[in-house]
Each structure stands twice: as structure tokens, then as C-alpha cells.
């Protein structure tokens, strides 16, 4: 027999329907509203079945133990296994059942999130929200902190300011989960971390894929495939974005000649630098500087300061 709630030490908050409806009048909570949230420690025999799904996106973060999930609309659906350091996402209106493993009951912190931001989050996931998804967390402590913020704020009260704060934390959770899902398992990223740091620190160095692959401890073909999966493009495209981002900063914050800026970020030929810059930013380096360089700050007249706050 499975139970939905009632675990020793559990915490649970559910918004009254009238409060949830009233929150729809606020621009912030209309976009994203947490309607339910909870913390279930060592949830032995925990289980839920919703044949028609929930009315909101269900996010379950597993902090200890293990659990499982399966979509109910598809008899051939694979059973997903969830362990500590992973999040389970159940799209709204998708029939599902899930539960805690009897031999290693999970501890979970969870929320139901509704609104356009939640739907956009679902659409960003694999299969566009048509099936449950298990996501490996890249920063477990940060996600748990944000989920705790969601629940703690709901425990204060259900006034609009509290609901707004809850929406802010929940939006941060969804953004982290979407990014983690796009990046793939953290272990897949591990060989690339040294490469990313090397590229950031050596923008003026030539890009040699075979050398980067050696730095990552991978074959060139495996490295190229892993890099593309992690960044959405090839090494040259990634380095170009890094270089132009740094060049943009230098153009906006220094008076260095444009050619010198180009050399600093790895472009010895000023004309080639200008072409690459225009391809990314849409305008030449000179026009970018004119549009974004800051004028020297003006001093506020002493008599314009409020009494007792004049600058020393």
C-alpha cells in the first residue's frame, strides 16, 4: 500500500483555490505560481498515481534514497529510476505514477508550479514535455537551497508578497533545471572543465582541436562530439563568442585602439577582427564603441545631496 503524505517530520503547504485565483491578477504570480510544496523525509511507502496528471508541473528533488516513476498513458513506457542528486519533472496533464523504493526510501523536496513560465520550462526539456524527465543536478546544494526557499516562504503566509518571493525562487529552480538538462550529466562535463578554463584564460592563443582534446584526455573525435553536445556548436564558434565578448568589454570600458583590442583577443589582422566582430555583434568595433562607451561620470553638485548625505 502506498501513501501520499503523512510522514514523520514532513512539511506541506497547499494554496487555497481562492488564493491561487487571486494571484492570477498579479503580473509576477500570473506568469509562475507555486500552488503546492513539501518536504517528505525518509518517505517509506510514499506513492502517487494521477491518471490524468496534475494541473501544474511537478518538480521533485531527491536529496537521499531512491524512487521511481512511470507515465500511465503509454503501456510500453520505461520505468524511470530517481536517486539522490537528481530531479524528477512531471509535465502538467501527463498521467503518471511514482513512488519511493521500499529498500531505500527517498527524501524529497517538491513543488507544483503553474503558469506560462512553467509551460515554457516543460517545452525546453527533452521531448518538449511529453514524458517524465529525470535530470542530473550540477549543483545539488544550490537547487536544494532554492527549493527550501520556496517552501520556507510559503510557510510564512500566503500573502501576495510571499507568493511573489516564492515565484522568484521557483523560477530560479526551473532555470537551473533547464540548464542542467541541456548540459547533460555532470560527469559528461568533467573532461571539458579544464578546456573551458584554458580557453577563457588564453583567448589570444591559436585554437588547435587536437591539443584541446589532449588536455581533456579524449580522442579528437570524442572530444569534438562531447564539446558540441555541451555547447551546441564547434570549438571555433565557441571561442569566437568568448573573444568577441571580451573585445566588447574592452571597447566599452577602455580607450585601447581597436587593433590592439583585436590582438588581445587573438586577432592579429584588424580587418579580420572587424569582420568577426560584425558577424557576432551586427556592427563594427568602432560603431560598437561609439554606442556603448561611457562618458566620464559627472560629479553630483554638493547642494544636490540630501541633508546629511553629502559626499566627503
From TrEMBL:
Chain segments carrying region Disordered: 291-312
Compositionally skewed regions (Basic and acidic residues) per UniProt: 291-301
PANTHER family recorded: HTH-TYPE TRANSCRIPTIONAL ACTIVATOR RHAS-RELATED
GO molecular function annotation: DNA-binding transcription factor activity; sequence-specific DNA binding
Record-linked InterPro entries: AraC-bd (IPR003313), AraC_XylS_family_regulators (IPR050204), Homeodomain-like_sf (IPR009057), HTH-like (IPR037923), HTH_AraC (IPR018060), HTH_AraC-typ_CS (IPR018062), RmlC-like_jellyroll (IPR014710)
Keyword Endoplasmic reticulum listed: no
Name of the protein: HTH araC/xylS-type domain-containing protein
UniProt superkingdom: Bacteria
Domain HTH araC/xylS-type: 193-291
Natural source organism: Brachybacterium phenoliresistens
Stretches that traverse the bilayer: none
Gene3D superfamilies, sorted: Homeodomain-like, Jelly Rolls
SMART domains referenced in this protein's UniProt entry, alphabetically: HTH_ARAC
Keywords of this entry: Activator, DNA-binding, Transcription, Transcription regulation
Keyword set includes Membrane: no
Amino acid at each position: 500500500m502506498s501513501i501520499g503524505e503523512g510522514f514523520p517530520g514532513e512539511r506541506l503547504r497547499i494554496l487555497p483555490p481562492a488564493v491561487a485565483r487571486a494571484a492570477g491578477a498579479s503580473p509576477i504570480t500570473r506568469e509562475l505560481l507555486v500552488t503546492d510544496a513539501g518536504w517528505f523525509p525518509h518517505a517509506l511507502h510514499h506513492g502517487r498515481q494521477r491518471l490524468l496528471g496534475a494541473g501544474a508541473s511537478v518538480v521533485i528533488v531527491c536529496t537521499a534514497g531512491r524512487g521511481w516513476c512511470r507515465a500511465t498513458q503509454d503501456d510500453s513506457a520505461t520505468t524511470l529510476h530517481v536517486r539522490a542528486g537528481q530531479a524528477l519533472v512531471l509535465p502538467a496533464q501527463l498521467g503518471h505514477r511514482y513512488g519511493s523504493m521500499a529498500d531505500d526510501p527517498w527524501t524529497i523536496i517538491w513543488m507544483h508550479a503553474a503558469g506560462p513560465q512553467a509551460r515554457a520550462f516543460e517545452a525546453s526539456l527533452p521531448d518538449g514535455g511529453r514524458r517524465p524527465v529525470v535530470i542530473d543536478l550540477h549543483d545539488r546544494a544550490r537547487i536544494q537551497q532554492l527549493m527550501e526557499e520556496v517552501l520556507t516562504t510559503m510557510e510564512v503566509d500566503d500573502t501576495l508578497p510571499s507568493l511573489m518571493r516564492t515565484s522568484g525562487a521557483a523560477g530560479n529552480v526551473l532555470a537551473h533545471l533547464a540548464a542542467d538538462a541541456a548540459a547533460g550529466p555532470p560527469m559528461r562535463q568533467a573532461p571539458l572543465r579544464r578546456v573551458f578554463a584554458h580557453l577563457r584564460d588564453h583567448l589570444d592563443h591559436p585554437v588547435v582541436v587536437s591539443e584541446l582534446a589532449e588536455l581533456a584526455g579524449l580522442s579528437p573525435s570524442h572530444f569534438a562530439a562531447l564539446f558540441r553536445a555541451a555547447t551546441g556548436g564547434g570549438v571555433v564558434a565557441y571561442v569566437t563568442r568568448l573573444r568577441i565578448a571580451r573585445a566588447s568589454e574592452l571597447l566599452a570600458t577602455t580607450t585601447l585602439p581597436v587593433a590592439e583590442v583585436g590582438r588581445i583577443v587573438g586577432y592579429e589582422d584588424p580587418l579580420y577582427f572587424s569582420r568577426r566582430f560584425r558577424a557576432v555583434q551586427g556592427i563594427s568595433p568602432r560603431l560598437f564603441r561609439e554606442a556603448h562607451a561611457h562618458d566620464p561620470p559627472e560629479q553630483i553638485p554638493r547642494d544636490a545631496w540630501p541633508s546629511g548625505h553629502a559626499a566627503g
